[in-house]
Amino acid sequence: MSKPPIALPEIFSQIPRHQILYPNPSPIHSLPTLTPRNPPHPQISIFAKREDQSAPLACAGNKYRKLEYIVPDILSATPLHHSHENHPNTTTPAGPATILVTEGAIQSNHTVQVAALARKLGLKALVLLSRGTGGGLRASQDPEAFLRTGNVQINRLLGAEVRILDENDPRASDAFPILEDLRAQGERPYWIPGGASIHPFGGLGYARAAFEIAEQETEMGLGGTGRFDFVFVACGSGSTVGGLIAGFRMLEARREEADRRIRPRRSVIGVLNSPTKPRSYHEERVLQFAQRASALIGLDSQRFISADDIKLEDRFVGSAYGVLDVETKEAAERMARMEALVLDPVYTAKVARGMLQWIQEEEIRQYARLHSLDKVNVLFIHTGGQAALSAYADVN
After folding, report:
1. Structural domains of the chain, count
2. Which residues of 53-79 are buried (b: 16+ CB within 10 A; e: fewer)?
3. Which of 26, 108, 140, 267 is an active site residue?
4. Per the domain annotation, does 3 fall within a domain?
5. Which label site among 137, 271, 285, 334 has the fewest CB atoms less than 10 Å from its CB?
């Protein structure tokens, strides 16, 4: 039986959304085996929100939640946000999109979810995969297998056209010529940037997810503050983290002032998965995404969203994006063997490693002492991606 719709503020509820997810929220599961036994004060309880079980389409994960707010524009007779970010002033197409075009690393989860969505909408899909993004291909002992298994194989199974671009191909950093070729062939391409983050609506899905989590908190009876005090999630392109921050801040802004003094804020910890850019770059990017999403949903972004809200963890990025280092592999094995929770090698395994390290350290306990708590609730957001595992079969 489906639950009633998530209760959103009026402005937020009026933003068009095309349902891709299941009617019911993605489940939140307790992870009791990982929870420290005979713990020192405070008790730390760990939970997982299963975004990998959120949708009926192929390889469910966090991108479907983002795409729900992009589909109305895709299907519009006059799409507004179809063009490449480097060339925003192209002519508005004379009708809805006929083909979705997106990009990513060789084992991109995002591209699979865009390809699956295209098939569901009756559209074509073109997936551009770059050999030069990250280090997964270079680290592989069997590069040819890496190029044909995992998410690459699923993209092709879904009927997407897959083009693998060389590192020095200028189209790997600017796909505008490819979009122009498609237009010349009579297609109406809709460009979805990698991760869907820099799309104007990229943060809305996870702003909505914050309201979903808040309703689940109420139903669960968590104890302690009655909410998840720390939320750990991957930070790649950044709008998942930014959207969550915007949504949680709106929830807090709607509470009475006295309640805000009694109940501390949730901390969203974005665990970075790539050392390519410094943490400061990602902090600024996430702040922009959070402020953009908050403005769209009716929250005063200058008043309620600041740099202090952005908490990113960069100690577990490893040697390169897409490379599964020994410590991260051990964290993934621990999650699988203790909780039968299978993670992906690029994002969620690094998040798990970061979360497990935080649980051993002092900050969570300091938070409990500051707020006189006997219990702290920790949420790990599983954003999917397990389909990439077969491409990493040669990792020792």
Report:
1. 2
2. ebbebbbbbbbbbbbbbbbebbebeeb
3. 108
4. no
5. 334
